[in-house]
Design goal:
Number of strands: 8
Oligomer: single chain
CATH superfamily of the largest domain: HAD superfamily/HAD-like
Helix content: 40-55%
CATH topology of the largest domain: Rossmann fold
Order of helices and strands: EEHHHHEHEHEHEHEEH
Strand content: 5-15%
Distance between the termini: 15 Å
CATH class of the largest domain: Alpha Beta
Shape: globular
Length: 213
Amino acid sequence: MRPVLIFDLDGTLVDSKKDLTESVNHIRYQFELPVLTEGEIARFIGNGALMLIRRALENQATEANVQIALQMFLSYYRAHMLDSTRLYPGVRETLDRLTDCKLAVLTNKPVHFTCAMLDGLGIYRHFASVYGGNSFDHKKPDPVGVYQILSDTKGQRERTWIIGDSAVDVRTGRNAGIRTCGVTYGYATETFKDAPPDFLIDSFSDLEALVHD
């Protein structure tokens, strides 16, 4: 049975901080809020677009404002999400070599943005399944996405990994009963202290040796 590798997107496969930062600051400008840095906005990422906007609006996050800002954000980000976003070093080459594994993406980013980003960066073809934050009734860390991927790939839990940059990914893996691998180069690695992964890698290319060990 081939191993199944389930990847988070932002902070794991792609460095999207600059485009997300500019998109969030575009919204904050509309609400007369000051500009935030990449590091500050990176802490908002990981729980989906709605939560990102709710956090970005701070004390102006009324339900009405959040809904207005969310639509503005999605429209702006759709047009600019590949302006500066790039694959992390080693991602393309490692995916090319993982031919003996079944690969999937499970992210809290909306699925249509996810598919467009993977396609625009030339790696969509590698993945047997791609699911986003609006693919199911519940987002990560709910394990529903993992269960669907296991069904899609006919994978076994004991040979399945989730790879991500935050405690959200680790908790998703734990909830699903699969192995967890954290990347140290992502956005929310400080959250690993609350939910330590089974393994840590400093470079995406380290994954190949880990899963074949």
